[in-house]
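User: Assemble these into one structure.

Assistant: Restating your components, then the assembled model:
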Amino acid sequence: MWPDRRLLELLGIDVPIVQAPMAGANRSEMAIAVSNAGGLGSIPCALLDTDAIESECAQFRAQSSRPFNLNFFCHAPPVADAAVDADWRATLASYYAELGLDASAPLPNVDRAPFDDAACALVERLRPPVVSFHFGLPDPELLARVRATGATILSSATSVAEARWLAARGCNAVIAQGAEAGGHRGMFLGTDISTQAGTLALVPQIADAVDVPVIAAGGIADGRGIAAALALGASGAQIGTAYLFTPEATISRLHRRALDEAADNTALTNVFTGRPARSVVNRIMREVGPLAGAAPAFPLAAAALMPLRAATERHDRSDFTSLWSGQAAALGRNMGAAQLTNLLAREALERLESLR
Amino acid sequence: MWPDRRLLELLGIDVPIVQAPMAGANRSEMAIAVSNAGGLGSIPCALLDTDAIESECAQFRAQSSRPFNLNFFCHAPPVADAAVDADWRATLASYYAELGLDASAPLPNVDRAPFDDAACALVERLRPPVVSFHFGLPDPELLARVRATGATILSSATSVAEARWLAARGCNAVIAQGAEAGGHRGMFLGTDISTQAGTLALVPQIADAVDVPVIAAGGIADGRGIAAALALGASGAQIGTAYLFTPEATISRLHRRALDEAADNTALTNVFTGRPARSVVNRIMREVGPLAGAAPAFPLAAAALMPLRAATERHDRSDFTSLWSGQAAALGRNMGAAQLTNLLAREALERLESLR
């Protein structure tokens, strides 16, 4: 039925679809729907505290006996730099003035905890079947502890060099994240987005470079994309943006509306968090970005945006709101996550059949 | 055999492979080899004068009775701006000094003639089976004259909006040029490369938007890429960089050497001509680009680079040389253009067969 069963067997799933973990945009409800439909559901942990992660896991297990994935960020914690922060606030000062906000007020905390000892202890306790990382891998000692739980370990590569690096450190499969992908680039061996490759170019090169299964990510939103991923040598596809159109997505109405206008109109930007991520283009990206030299290190750039975002969202505007989207949002369909997973799998198989 | 015969029937070819016209990098020899192997060979005319185009056509017809494509640029002719030119020379002044060159010497002429009345008259005389354009389409009157010759007309779209624009003006097929592609972006409705989409995301959206056959371009260098293009809804693939590895490519040894080191290392740059084009990253791109605000309009930026290029190439260095390459150069194989065409077609069919 599926031409490549390596990923299905590695993960214990029925259809070669990984629901992308989307911090802030999905929780266990989406993961449950996708896993119960035979794919791999993912619970993003980057914005959750220990209790919330534990609760999401419990909810998943109450409603599904299928495999699931806990996803963690493993960036280096940023070192706050007062001069950089001041520069960033100066860059944004005119917006504070325009909105009548106090530019000297203390900023909210935006820590996204990198995978640390506490998170690792949680993984040891929860024993998720799959653990995926973004921005590389945690320290070898932490990684060894995750591996010792028996978890299958995944991470994203945005270049051939990163794929080799991940495979050499024991990743069980590599997510080849092409430049089309929405949200944060997983890049960790470099910071230059100008050389980031598209999915169609990246996947076969990574498939040639590593022995483990490759999961194609970026720009895949229907059965044609999944069939193409398999043609390129991937064993499966990771899909994010298409799932933002499901009711299980925990995104705002503003974000949903932006996705409907995303065609030809997304860009990689660092203005929202300090790291490059793909969003539907909006005012702050046009006027300050999309790549701002003044943006503080991830995730500190987010802090000074939050008051602007809150003040404008109240008036139904997304001028300062991150509107994560990949480049294939125009292919999105409004339906439940389980229904979408079934449809994607059926479309992909029909597409493969039609290509004989 | 081939799952989609629309492009084969439109162009009168046997395998759904269009050899990308690569100005400066191929002439009739490559086109003859590809067309005789059943694909569509292309003769790029942007750097050729009328006599040379006529001669290349004659050579093609002496050695092949198969269809072929004449490709023209149809950019708006640049208006020279003394202040911009001076700024560009100032940007490059330190390199002139380093190489002991006279920064005040008159610059060479770098006109790339856009498709005009004379070129159109040539098409009317030569009657090529296929005419393709880059940077949009010529004026309606010229386009009508080309159409009246009976030529099949192609052009490149880098967005859904551009694809719709081309189809509405009577293009018989649309080349969906993803961001992976080497050489010049065909973009003509906008200049912002930050929103340019990758091939995997772009092709299905364009296939949904237009009724004419779609030719996928960008990042396709082996049978996997062709199979993926067909899976995405394209009727064929345009392939450039893979053909730079053939002896028929009229590129320098320096360029060939750069292609061997292109993996993870190409970027879109405007430093060589003033328009964004993908090249292997080299010194001038790193130090002045990849996108330089100071670069004059296409093709005028090239003029001030030429003395630098000549002086360094003499010492076997490509610091100032355009090294056009797509993002899949690592998949390139050294073999003749006919042999490569046969191999690509066989690989694609085998790949499609293996996906059942």
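Chain B touches chain A through 51 residues (CB under 8 Å).
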